[in-house]
Amino acid sequence: MTTILRAEARLIDIPVETVRTDAMQSFLKQETLIVRIETSDGLVGTGYSYTIGTGGRAVLAMLREHLLPILPGLDSTRIEAIWQTLAGSTRATQVGAITSLALAAIDTALWDIASLRAGLPLWKLSGGAMEKAPLYDTEGGWLHLTIDELVDNALESQANGWHGVKVKVGKPRIEEDAARIGALRDALGPDVDIMVDANQSLTAARAIQLAHALEPFQVGWLEEPLPADDLSGHARLAASTTIPIAVGESMYSVGHFRNYLEHQAASVIQVDVARVGGITPWLKVAHLAESFNVDVCPHFLMELHVSLVCAIPNGRYVEHIPQLRGVTTTRLEVRDGHAIAPSTPGLGIDWNPDALDALTVA
């Protein structure tokens, strides 16, 4: 048995690389929780999760005051057992973001250790379905950008060989959103996917109107049109439009995804490894989606999600939003519009200790 000797956590603030706005908020900074776990066989695993500007210290408190003290002495090879033990100790705060984000930071560190011990990259250890995954770009589609800026950014992505671009919607009038998407389709032609993201800003009635207005532009998906707890509204919307409905970044349990899939309320699953509680539940959601013949296109965290998308047979896209370049020594490898799965054992993220120290706030 290779037991956990010690575990520690810190909070770092990573500045955004570009201004990011959507219909509900601005991306202020990435509050990043880093967990480091040491085992009796000399391995050290690093895991992480994040928030986008608030709540990071609450997650850190959950880790330090409750979850990390449970770990010493546990068998580091029993990842599922550890996840269940930790989750079982937090029944009073589940299901919710603070607990899931804390669990994810620990769980990703344990998978890092497991991959290091096996001498395999994460994508092979967790399935190994494919060596690369198509990319789509979000950085060029923020809500504050003009139509001309959107078009210029999308054409650059197309020239780079990327397979899709995502655009935020949520202007005061549906006609404004439709004009933006129409201009993109005219500029890009039929061969680039255009994803549309409303960031939970709409009512069901308005989402149905927007979907009908966007259908002529062959939209790849309509993402988070309604609040995540409006299951019936999503089901009504999905039944009313030919545009695929995408959900997941604001769901925090496997059960939430099951409900959406059972009610045919989504046809693209965007499970986020940090928000669902780690790699362990992420894989469960991905295989659940596979059983419904539904694609997985995870939200954010491209440096980690490339490995998970490549692990599964129904991984369709990796979202390109660079955020870790200031705290890592290597970058995501991109070739011919695809993200390449890392070849080294572990998560495939090479942290820069000096940069992490410089940005540590707690």
Automatic annotation (TrEMBL):
InterPro entries: Enolase-like_C_sf, Enolase-like_N, Enolase_C-like, Mandel_Rmase/mucon_lact_enz_CS, Mandelate_racemase_C, Mandelate_racemase_N_dom, RHMD-like. SUPFAM superfamilies: Enolase C-terminal domain-like, Enolase N-terminal domain-like. Residues 147-244 form the Mandelate racemase/muconate lactonizing enzyme C-terminal domain. Gene3D superfamilies: Enolase-like C-terminal domain (3.20.20.120), Enolase-like, N-terminal domain (3.30.390.10). Keywords: Magnesium, Metal-binding. It comes from the Bacteria. The keyword Acyltransferase does not apply. Its cofactor is Mg(2+). Pfam families: MR_MLE_C, MR_MLE_N. The keyword DNA-binding does not apply. PANTHER family: ENOLASE SUPERFAMILY, MANDELATE RACEMASE, MITOCHONDRIAL ENOLASE SUPERFAMILY MEMBER 1. This is Mandelate racemase/muconate lactonizing enzyme family protein. It comes from Microbacterium rhizosphaerae.
